[in-house]
Amino acid sequence: MERKELAKKYKYLQRIIWAASMIWALVVLVQSIPYYQSISAGKQSFKAGLYDQAEQHFKSALKTAESFHSQDSRLANSLNNLAELYRTQARYADAEPIYKRLLSVAEKSWWQKDIGIAISHHNLASLYRDECKDDEALQESNLALSIWNEKVKRPNDAIKASLLNGLAKTYRDKGDYVQSEKLALEALAIKENALGKDHIEVAAVLDNLGGIYRDEHKYGDAEVAYQRAFAIDKASWGLDHPDTIGDLNNLGELFCDEGKYTDAEPLLRDALAKRQKIFGPNHPLIATSLYDLGIVYKDTKRKDQARPLLEQSLAIRQKMLGPNHRDTKESQQALESLSKNTRVLGTKH
Prior knowledge:
Elements: H1 2-47, H2 51-65, H3 73-88, H4 92-108, H5 113-130, H6 134-152, H7 158-173, H8 177-195, H9 200-215, H10 219-237, H11 242-257, H12 261-279, H13 284-299, H14 303-320, H15 326-336
């Protein structure tokens, strides 16, 4: 009789626990709905180049995530999305404290801690590259890869390929093209094996590799890489996405370097017009497009058309990047050489 009573009490207790678990799960689900709605809407806006809308959604997601546990992975995800948005907009002063907070969150995490730390250092390196802080970028990139190799130990993971590609970009900025090419090719092989040859992350590596080949004056190899990147991005995003526009601009820069100005000019004009619709008048990418088109006019003896574009490019770069950034100096050099026959190569992207 006692056994039957105990069995009934046990079953009753089980039901209470099950009911409490279901109620708690439902509460968590309800609390999470605004977060996931904001994240989804933010990512869609970001992919469409609607950055003001993306910022609103990502800030909303972050506010919701801050009400969760301090080590909840959704907090790290929210911080990363907002920081990447600011970096894309060249709002570097806004991005850096968020990236550093993200690193702090990753260091305290109990779930995939080492992966989060490696990615956080990689993200900081990307920011420092954009700011032309080459030494800091190299330090952060090496640290990210070291953590991955020593603690994560996934040699064929697509994330490792991203870390390799980031390090390749840093070496490219420092002019070490041999090391840069080696790292980019390793990253490409891993990405293609892990994700397939037509994945958008493969396009990102091809974009970098094309730039390396261009810097090395391997123009045939550069065009192959750029065309592959363009085909992937076009199929994935369409013609009006920032990545696809960047591919067109890269091809235009390449053709300009080769002296194929008839091929370069329409691509660069198209890229400029589309970037102006997405980024507004004062983004560094607008300055790049203005600079590139100005170089075409300069090299084809249309100096009256070249000067206002190069002046606009310089003004934007001085405002957004500062007077000591390599891109600002590039625009200054182009203006100074406008009355001469000096050939100034386009900027690297």
